[in-house]
């Protein structure tokens, strides 16, 4: 990892009672990087994601975003520093139309005219223009996922965290999402939590593998997929 | 929600209707009817306060009468002590707003869940009721104003022209003032809901987690909305106290709190016009059933409420809007639908 880190987690642990879900993890993300977090169920990747987004506070360790200590920051404070977050189960404004979902996101730091321009741009980019005036609550699951991604983009963040962005999408939608992620990565850093290996292959460069709360391997995608320890973990064997 | 009533045309229609009522009612109705109508308006303002925080802020307040009563008492005490109504009116809004802000701070920043918020607000109203009930005797006074316990405070000086305490408003003038204030509150809330603040508030109602993930602090938005609702309820209390020249602890009662909820439910939650209509209709019915002696008035009201909850659960205004939307071509609605948040 070269240059200054955009996001830096040092010795981060999270314990729930006697269970250590995340165990002294050191993690660093460079500006403009695309990183995938993978691992079997219960590996601690979702907990780690919640620590990064302020939905949970670490038991020990520190997390820094561009040098700011955000270890105990609230979710909205982390978002204000320029972190856009898409959660695993879509969190959208169901009772509002698609356009309003994006507008509420864009208006936080922009004047109304600029916010409307951003909304139109994001709608076009995600091919949501045709359904812009429909209530989000009545849309299909894949479309709701994109509305949420749209809301994150309209926020114009520097770092985007996506928790299982391809979950519940059709084959075609997954391909489009992968393309979108690569496109976003031209200008922004991303962390993608995913366990669909097919999807990982489509987008990944650098991959961090979690297992039993620790980082098992961190390497480029080919090496990770060829790694015997990773295969064992995914096939359910005990990790070495 | 139907987009009808939501655009600029709908707003203009509502205000035009308000102006017509303000001008026409004094011409067609006698003094008694006018005085009756004035208390309906006070209740409509009260219904708006809950309609706003519940329907748009998603804040379930079972004790909105707390702010209504505080506004009434703040007006009465200040009007007696200061001998003029200007400061009294301001205090009738400011005291409940400040009290709501304080209560809201503990509820929202303490991350109290919705159900407990209902319990807490209800309890606060009951506490205020009991406190005011036990202030009988001349030792309980604020300045020259005796609180009067369960007998309440009689002979409260009425609103006067600014700067001239001897020029009290006539019933007609007070009716017109009440209508103007009702339209002002309605307009103010419409503008607020169309603003950035209002749109974020509605978004928070829809999904608090998403709002936080976008960088908004829901606690702050809810607190501000709750305080605004408290201030509006206080204004209503001020109008009510002026109407009868009297305020008593029953203003804080559970029956009063329940009635406000019924206004909003019947008229239609998530609208502003609905609570106004609900308040006027219920108050009118109460008056009507009160003048006959064949049936118990509460029984008739109970049947009507039950009927509405079962048959028109979304409330009257949304139901009518949905019916109108069916006859008006969809093409016309498409343009207005981007205004989903600015409800009637």
Spatial shape of chain A: globular
> Helix-strand pattern of chain A, N to C?
EEEHEEHEHHHEHEHEEHH
Q: Work out the number of β strands of chain A.
A: 10
CATH fold topology of the largest domain in chain A: Rossmann fold
Q: Can you tell me the CATH architecture of the largest domain in chain A?
A: 3-Layer(aba) Sandwich
Spatial order of the strands forming the largest sheet of chain B: 1-2
Task: Count every beta strand of chain B, where a strand is a DSSP E run of 2 or more residues.
Answer: 2
Biggest interface: A-B, 30 and 23 residues
Report the sheet-strand fraction of chain A: 25-35%
The low-confidence parts of chain B are: 331-343
Instruction: Report the mean per-residue pLDDT of chain B as an integer.
Output: 88
- CA radius of gyration of chain B: 20 Å
Question: At the first level of CATH, what is the class of the largest domain in chain A?
Answer: Alpha Beta
Q: Give the helix tally of chain A.
A: 9
- What is the count of structural domains of chain B? 1
Protein structure class of chain A: alpha/beta
Structure overview:
The complex is a heterodimer of chains A (240) and B (344). A 6-stranded mixed sheet of chain A has the order 6-7-8-3-9-10, sandwiched between helices. In chain A, strands 2-1-4-5 form a 4-stranded antiparallel sheet, with helices on one face. In chain A, 47% of the residues are buried. Chain A contains 9 helices and 10 strands. Chain A has 240 residues and is of the alpha/beta class. In chain A, helix 3 (98-106) crosses helix 4 and helix 3 runs parallel beside helix 5. Chain A has 2 domains: 1-82 and 160-170 and 189-240, P-loop containing nucleotide triphosphate hydrolases (Rossmann fold, 3-Layer(aba) Sandwich); 85-156, no CATH class. Helix content of chain A is 36%, strand content 27%. Chain B is mainly α and 344 residues long. Chain B has one domain (8-253, 323-339). Chain B is 70% helix and 1% strand. In chain B, helix 2 (31-55) packs across helix 11 (273-290), helix 4 (86-109) packs antiparallel against helix 9 (218-244) and helix 6 crosses helix 7. The longest helix of chain B has 27 residues, at 218-244. The chains are: A alpha/beta (240), B mainly alpha (344). Chains A and B meet through helix 2 and helix 3 of A and helix 7 and helix 8 of B. Chain B: The chain crosses the membrane at residues 9-28, 34-54, 61-80, 86-108, 115-132, 172-193, 220-240, 260-286, 298-321. Chain B: It is found in: Cell membrane.
